[in-house]
Amino acid sequence: MTRSSRTPRQLVVGDDTFLWSVRHEHHGDPGSYEDCSEVLTIRRPGAMGRLRVVFGSCPGHVVPDGHTPSGTVGTGDGVSLNLHEPGTVRALVDEITSRGGLINGDAVTEVDGWSLFATVAAHRPVGG
Prior knowledge:
- This protein has helices at about 85-100, 115-120; strands at about 10-15, 15-25, 35-45, 50-55, 60, 70-75, 80, 110.
- It is an alpha+beta fold.
- The chain has one domain.
- A hairpin with a 6-residue loop joins strand 3 (about 35-45) and strand 4 (about 50-55).
- The radius of gyration is 14 Å and the shape is globular.
- It starts with 8 loop residues before the first strand and ends in a 6-residue tail after the last helix.
């Protein structure tokens, strides 16, 4: 049975539990496939607040566009992360936490995923 992409997955980090999901978003005119983003959303169970880690399309960066697998973000030089991998999500949570961020009460906070990419990719297996 295939897992529903709408059902958040659970990640346990020490004493903390998070729920996370990945989705693809389009921006711009309705029906347009320009300005695609892959968005990793992380929240605590029962909380309204969430952290959105956004990997937007921009020169030199790759987000899924029908030619690359869902959840795969990368750079033009072939370095990539798979946002569907729990280890990648854990590495992102660790990096965000080390920078003093994470979920803040009931607020929705956005972080530019590309600002975390190089550090996280350096600690993940190739393609992971």
